[in-house]
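Lay summary. Proteins are chains of building blocks that fold into shapes, and those shapes determine what they do. In this project we predict the shape from the chain. Here is one chain we studied, written as its sequence of building blocks.
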Amino acid sequence: MRRSLIMGNWKMNGSREDGQKLAQALADGLGDVQQEVAVCVPFVYLSDIRGVLAASPIALGAQNVADQASGAYTGEVSAAMLSEVGCKYALVGHSERRSYYGDTNESVAKRFCQALSKGVVPVLCVGETLEEREQDRTFQVVDEQLDAVIAAAGIEAFETAVIAYEPVWAIGTGKVATDEQAQEVHKYIRQRIADRNPVIAEKVQILYGGSVKPDNAKGLFAMPDIDGGLVGGASLDAKGFLQICHSV
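And here is the predicted shape, written in a compact code that computers can read:
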């Protein structure tokens, strides 16, 4: 039985004080939940939030990771650095990184491998744009994004990785895939993994990310191949995020 995972992505929001207050509210309000909960925090606040969450089961995550181990890469943050400050997870290939900062399938695969090499769990984000969906290319795009990582890291890497399906057209737009639309792609992703290793496919967590909110979370999470959510804007509101956590 796969354990559910609810992961908040704070993106580039809030101040140091805001982040500490939010983390404390989550720690205080989480209660006795069976699923895993994590928050992906801006790099500069990771140490602060680690301190707030020290006595909490909430795990710490980063929003990106460098595609190199070390060296003259100004502005980058390595997997070793993330591990040292207590990150359990790191997002790789988020659609905003792909769209705004030129991340390619190949560079995302390198980031994925770097995270794995230092014991940080990579959360591989895959998904199609609205144009690609309207062209019926959803599965082709997901294949290309998955296959680049499988080629670089091997299918066995998904024993210690998470996949997040995020339809780009539903991120920050208020739109959301229907429960059935999301399930269709999640099922497809799991089958793609199963074609190579059915045991890993049964165990790998596949999250839905795309305007997850308290009022749609329960229906999404009831789908058989959706193992939780990668939550953006709603993760900045403690009450709403906790409602999402408790809706599993």
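What the prediction tells us: The CA atoms of residues 58 and 120 lie 15 Å apart.
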